[in-house]
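Reproducibility note. Readers wishing to regenerate the assembly model reported in the main text can use the exact inputs given here. Chain order matters: entities are listed in the order in which they were concatenated for prediction.
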Amino acid sequence: MASLDRVKVLVLGDSGVGKSSLVHLLCQNQVLGNPSWTVGCSVDVRVHDYKEGTPEEKTYYIELWDVGGSVGSASSVKSTRTVFYNSVNGIILVHDLTNKKSSQNLYRWSLEVLNRDSMPTGVLVMNGDYDQEKFADNQIPLLVIGTKLDQIHETKRHEVLTRTAFLAEDFNAEEINLDCTNPRYLAAGSSNAVKLSRFFDKVIEMRYFLRDSNQIPGFPDRKRLLGGTFKNLHYD
Amino acid sequence: MSFLIDSSIMITSQICFFGFGWLFFMRQLFKDYEVRQYVVQVIFSVTFAFSCTMFELIIFEILGVLNSSSRYFHWKMNLCVILLILVFMIPFYIGYFFVSNIRLLHKQRLPFSCLLWLTFMYFFWKLGDPFPILSPKHGILSIEQLISRVGVIGVTLMALLSGFGAVNCPYTYMSYFLRNVTDTDILALERRLLQTMDMIISKKKRMAMARRTMFQKGEVHNKPSGFWGMIKSVTASAPGSEMPDLTLIQQEVDALEELSRQLFLETVDLYATKERIEYSKTFKGKYFNFLGYFFSIYCVWKIFMATINIVFDRVGKTDPVTRGIEITVNYLGIQFDVKFWSQHISFILVGIIIVTSIRGLLITLTKFFYAISSSKSSNVIVLLLAQIMGMYFVSSVLLIRMSMPLEYRTIITEVLGELQFNFYHRWFDVIFLVSALSSILFLYLAHKQAPEKHVAP
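Running the prediction on these inputs yields the following structure tokens for the assembly.
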């Protein structure tokens, strides 16, 4: 078999949201039987057909790097984690639909990756509200996935889905909500599978077909104020 | 009338402590989790509030604030409430939340948690048998019975923590023990880590491709079934001899993943050591380094004293304050008003002991909580921590009696009844010694093992 081109996608999120189950589902089309704590980083590979069904169809390897840990980890853990963030082509942000804090922490996760060049210890304290500019400037495609959908009661579903829609909008990203223990959410042809496919296509495009976006930009005029806190526009 | 005033003062302070416990819970412990069961937060804050009130009563005792009879009343009431919480409420809720996590038993939560609570009570009661803790004059359900057992558990915990803390503190503070770590070491390790990840990826690529071709072949053959299907599937799998290969590759991948985890942890360790080296060069670092030498002397002295106490079967009769005053009066010939000074000095001493032990415990609990909790088990762990905290504080009261002059000890002796206090001190010494010595051994082994890892290629 010929050696295929590859792209690297990070899977980030708090401890216990279901990243390992998600990666297992995406790569092996099977449910993960015994999820255990991820130490360091675990990688899995998915074979993806770019532009499936068209004459330009080409197969790529998508490496899913599932980085374990939490945003509040010690700075030594954060420094070690940054070694995995090199030459990233796409980011999947995973949060737990039953846990609001995990959704809020996604901002910190994304900034940890996007700012890694200028902030090796990973400590970022920001003042003011998050504005879309930061994420509009970003060239790396993002995807927001919410897990444990089955544990949300029917009555609360609408409220939760509205909140996650705002979240995805902040990141300028698509969103998928599913349950990692049920493969039917990603069944071929479902809207989730289409969104996923589109995301991977976008990642491949950014990497191989748009030459000038190979560099990952930093944020030169980022404010760094001590003791500040960030406010979240959409939730209290 | 004065009783009402006193009670209102006590209740106000209790509300303040409750608020502090609530804030601590929300800001520190449950920083990354969502509080879904408010019962847990309430129980934690209530335990904290009543524990702090006990210390407050000791301070009031020394300072002579409030009416003596109202103090006694509040002592009794406080003690009853704390014992109620520690022995009845928290164990029950621990059982309840533990059972709720198990999906199978979800429907019959209540009966199972009652069962767990009864098991706990049985072992809790049995705990009192091997220890000579109280005179056999008391009934079954008296305060003395419960306190004696709670005291044993709490004192064991205190001694374990003290022993480990006494050894770990100088080890962490002193820069003598810091291993030398350079940037090149870290870079080399990171490179190895990334190489391992690349190897894992290339193997996984082969596996993914193999799975994909098998899947596609499977579609073409349309899943044969029946007798002929079995024959077909046998012949079909022969050219696709990638099946046994997959298991072999999977084993290699498992080994590589284990290696990558170890490398990751080693790199984290190196980064942490590097940060500590940088910190030790700052002014604060040098100050802590100096403190470390001081603490190591203190630690050696404490171990020595504990051994002496056990070997010579000696329990300190006088408290440090009175002894200090005796020394200054008799040997140094300095005359001063004994009563006045003994009150103030014991207040300061006891106050320092209380504050440092509360602060130390809260910090240790937080670290412990971050290390082991996950979103499923956070409730159970917080309740366990509340239980530990309550038992710890109750036993602190038992042991602090030794640090106070005779006239202030009476209230504790009165309220807690006829416990064999000397036993608790002896037990503390024994466990402290055991804990300190095993911590020394443990740290020695850990320290020895680490540098060798970096020498190997």
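We highlight two features of this model. The mean pLDDT of chain B is 77. The longest helix of chain B spans residues 183-221.
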